[in-house]
Amino acid sequence: MLLEKLRLEVYQANMALPELGLVSFTWGNVSGYDAQSQLFVIKPSGLSYEQLTPANLVVLDLSGNVVEGELKPSTDAPTHAYLYQHFSGIGGITHTHSSWAVAYAAAGLDVPVVSTTHADTFFGDVPCVPTLTAKELTENYEQNTGKAIVRTFAERGINHLTTSAALMAQHGPFTWGKDAGESVYHAKVLEVTAEITHRAMQLTHADIHLPQHLLDKHYQRKHGKTAYYGQA
Amino acid sequence: MLLEKLRLEVYQANMALPELGLVSFTWGNVSGYDAQSQLFVIKPSGLSYEQLTPANLVVLDLSGNVVEGELKPSTDAPTHAYLYQHFSGIGGITHTHSSWAVAYAAAGLDVPVVSTTHADTFFGDVPCVPTLTAKELTENYEQNTGKAIVRTFAERGINHLTTSAALMAQHGPFTWGKDAGESVYHAKVLEVTAEITHRAMQLTHADIHLPQHLLDKHYQRKHGKTAYYGQA
Amino acid sequence: MLLEKLRLEVYQANMALPELGLVSFTWGNVSGYDAQSQLFVIKPSGLSYEQLTPANLVVLDLSGNVVEGELKPSTDAPTHAYLYQHFSGIGGITHTHSSWAVAYAAAGLDVPVVSTTHADTFFGDVPCVPTLTAKELTENYEQNTGKAIVRTFAERGINHLTTSAALMAQHGPFTWGKDAGESVYHAKVLEVTAEITHRAMQLTHADIHLPQHLLDKHYQRKHGKTAYYGQA
Amino acid sequence: MLLEKLRLEVYQANMALPELGLVSFTWGNVSGYDAQSQLFVIKPSGLSYEQLTPANLVVLDLSGNVVEGELKPSTDAPTHAYLYQHFSGIGGITHTHSSWAVAYAAAGLDVPVVSTTHADTFFGDVPCVPTLTAKELTENYEQNTGKAIVRTFAERGINHLTTSAALMAQHGPFTWGKDAGESVYHAKVLEVTAEITHRAMQLTHADIHLPQHLLDKHYQRKHGKTAYYGQA
Asked: What NCBIfam families would the database entry show (chains A, B, C, D) (predicted)?
């Protein structure tokens, strides 16, 4: 069986979604990418978390062909494939319908960075990617979702390695990271920061974005050469 | 004992209500319908979920007569009977007082379709059925509730097979499906989408309904001939 | 030991508060009343639910004297005593700091009856009792709390047997019932209806009170001679 | 090993954070102070609660030097050190990112005292400390956080022994108490009162601060010479 270690990681990352309260039913999927073989492992479509095993995950190449697996892959697999091709350096992707993040997506709004809880993980507002056109929806919907995310990051000059999350307008969150587990971590952080931000925005109509120096400080306390948080 | 297989399904569907966080105390009921015998099986009135067994469920005909059972059926049984008679092709019905859905019912508002989480299951806004008149309330209240739901769907041209949920104004949600289990699934989806929509509506006063092409795409990804979600 | 059966009921009713999510720490108390002996049993002050036993509950007479018990009774005991003296026919009282109900108390607002979830249990708005004066607070605070509740019901013509709940403004809910267990049930219903009503009031500024005929129908479906809900 | 009894208290206090729903992942830390040795014990930086033991806690002096421990202390240790030096009589400090409190911090607002739930523990509004300047953030950020808290209490004339909590604007809550356990208790009270207050503030735009006599009564019912709540 291909990629046994990666299968285990992706299995554990998928199972973390219900544990972290990020999914109802089967409404979420996690994948992990192996840069050497250029293959990724993803949850089968519509399978319950109770039925999931490392062995029934599906292995695909970046063109979306199933390389190993009896089951159909997540319908979102072409989104994952496109992101692995165009967001260099990522090794895992998570998609959920977690409710605070979806509320921002439904409203068509970025999640602004209004607290250090957000700044510790995402180096700026989490962007809301505009709804696809009718044409983009009809053909290759899921691949076009990936294209729209990549295009929005390019147009708005957002670095996908420091802001590793996006909202598809009227749909929901996609997050990514260096591996499957980190992409799930980012999905939870996004949900928590959306919750906090929603509550803060009910208390005030002021612009409460962090000043740049506070954003810099908190992000850099946890990331890069100047990081000093944690034991590493 | 009649309808043993259906009894088990209806029992399990009722027990899923507290597991899914959809009821407090005894504030919910699920029934399942057997098209061949034209009988349905429903939860007894006011019985706690701890006391419920497949054997103490109540079997009724579509006129509301108890065919088998020691206990009184749910007071909502005439609503269920009316819906089985007039909504062709349904095999299960759920009623709860889940709080996000009841909030929309209390406000007298439809739950608008503002995200794909909604569109994946309900093909349009979930309608709020106007409060019954004093006369409708006094005589045959529960049957008149069923009539009002059916009338609203007819008047507004809503297809009950693709929008399998309604809110009774100032009361709460009714959902249905091909069997008891699916009706519970729809009750949970309605609660989740009401929660998301409520939160989105606190963030913006814009009309954030899905465009038709996005609604079509997501509903049809999971339903009908063009469906490609899941393993079936 | 006095009142062993009542002690067990009051113990179980107190233990239901954390199970139903109605209290943090020790912020709640339940008592039960024995009409024959004119004594009531109440939780000791500040004792954790883990330490509570039927035996360490405190027995008081209606003047507030401890008749049996090593521990100090709840500081709210004089409120309970006053209500037992002046609200005829009640046998149990619950006080909590549950957060949706306290939000209404903090805002100084009644919980209006906007859904059948409320009407099934409380026959009208749950009144908010005005904050005590400085004088009422300084002397016999807890007894004066009971007096203010009874006075508000009298002034507003509310029947304490059909609307068995009140909010003390800027403080929190008191509920009562035929016994300790029913008073806890009413505490949970009040919390749920406050939650629903709060959410409905974020969706609309319209007056969404139930019409009288719907309030009558639902309350009487569960109470009095015309009741037909449940197995009794 | 130094301070074995204090290590156990601080360990238990840290473990209470996830039990009380106050932290996600590693986003919180508790310390305890030994006045005799002028040393404090704190959680290691970024360590998961599953990995935490009394033995791997870190012991520091008030200058921030590690006196005992293999792991790096919490990055917030200099904030704790500063508060121990300048807030006389405290023996424990807690920092979390609990979401209702952070919402107030993000909005830059005090948590006003609008209910007795708040007044039972904090003798007035919980102040929001203004965001640090760019200069304060760049050098000795964590120590400057402590300085800003102490300065705000001095400038606003707030007694840190009766209002034992602060919000750092755009960041989150710090609470303290006579020992580690009490500081965690205060962290939970702050979260609950922020939740209640947020909900009350959605219901009304009136000034709903407690009158002074009600604040006095409730605070003094639980604290000081006139206290009569509890068994002590």
From this structure: PRK08193.1
